[in-house]
User: Fold this.
Amino acid sequence: MIRLDKVSKQFRTGVFALSDISFEVEKGEFVFLVGPTGSGKTTIFRLLTREALPTTGEVVVDNWDVVKLPNNKISHLRKKIGVVFQDLKLLMDRTIFENIILPLEVSGIDSIIATKIVEEIMKKVGILPHKDKFPIQLSGGELQRAAIARALTLEPDILLADEPTGNLDSATAMEIVKLLSEINKKGTTVIMATHNEDAVKALSKRVISLNNGILTGGNEKKPKPHLEHSEKKSAIIDVKDKKSEDEDF
Amino acid sequence: MKTFKTTWRNIRRSPYQAFAAVLVMTLTFLFISFFTFLLFGSAKAISYFESRPQVTAFFRNEVKQADIDNLKNELNATGKVASLKFVSKQDALKIYREQNKNDPLLLELVTADILPASLEISAVKIENLSEINNQLLNSPLVSEVVFQKDVVSVLTSWTNALRTIGLGLIIVLSLVSVFIMVIIIGVKISQKKEDIGIMKLIGAGDWYIRTPFIFEGIYYGVIGAILGWIISAGALWYATPFLSSFLKGMPIFPIPLIFFFGLLGAEIITAVILGTLSSFLAVLRYLK
Assistant:
């Protein structure tokens, strides 16, 4: 589903955001992307959505070579990937409903059908009572749910969640993680970038860890079902090991 | 429908910029309307003067009717004469009496014998007047030629100058309004840069983002054209009684309704072109 092959990203300043990163994510998998601030988690998301291009290497999303993707196909790629941005990127002058319906409008879906879809998703993530409010009127957790709802409206095959629990208290954070897990159970591939150790522990999913743009663990493929428990364990151990290596995580 | 809603929201949320854009367009179309009225009026005035006798040839007393008929035939044969009217001595007396009916002293002194017969001639084109004038002056039958070339030629040259200056000003004003619209829409695009970035990230194509801005330009143009037309047509309607008495005799007023609505249609088409052009330039410039 997702493959990064020897990907490096160097900024104009000469700093490497990513160095020789390779990993694969299978269809329907839930993967945590962990690492300290500046480790390259968001850069990976930006490469996957063609917000940025790698300096070297290959990025493949659902059989689409993202690097070679012509400009007029970028919007098609982005409709396949739902993204919960770190800063949420909600439009402040639009209501929550208007924000969530936006991807459907962009895709030219009939407004009656779109309204129905949005109301269902809002109900599912628990923000339907806030549909006519503006982002400024909602709490952090509610905004996070709104961002998740917007990312889900087009029923994407892939959901990228960049620090979705970043500014939330632990109870709300766990609710968000649970929500993402439920979305994953319905078949959506989820990659969640996080600092939240509790979230990683709670779900026991595969963990890809990064440090200073270098992959430090988790680049193995999805574990087979019968090995899942031990693999999960190793993934958590990997995170724990990572923590001991890097205090920032 | 959604695009129209987005366009309307963009306009509503930055009313001062929208007002500035509409004002510039109104000014341009106000000028275009007034200029068109002026051209229409002057064209009517020229055709009025052209239809009036422009050359009057007064015959010598001894001239016979057969010679006058020959001269008429010669003039008609040139193909440059639009109309010929022979005014006999008796007709001339009638005209004289009508003109001086309030002055019995003048009426007593004049008889048909002392008034010359004349020929009133209108040319097909004003440029032909000199030629007709020369032909008449060379004729032994004619004692005097009154030639009104100056009035018409002055009017024609004024109209030509007006047309050139007006067209020049329309081009300049149109360019100014296009550039101001590019700036206004560009500012709006810059203000919404973050929103545009978000929309692109969630899969909006270029045209999804561009179309509302292009509609916005067309909207400003069309509203400006309608307002400009309403103001100019209203002003002309208000001034019609004064202008009709001032331009007494000239068949300019009332201006036909078809002309007004034709002008409105042409202005709306021009507004759509100007609006599309300016918003398209802004979109290309600011939405790379």
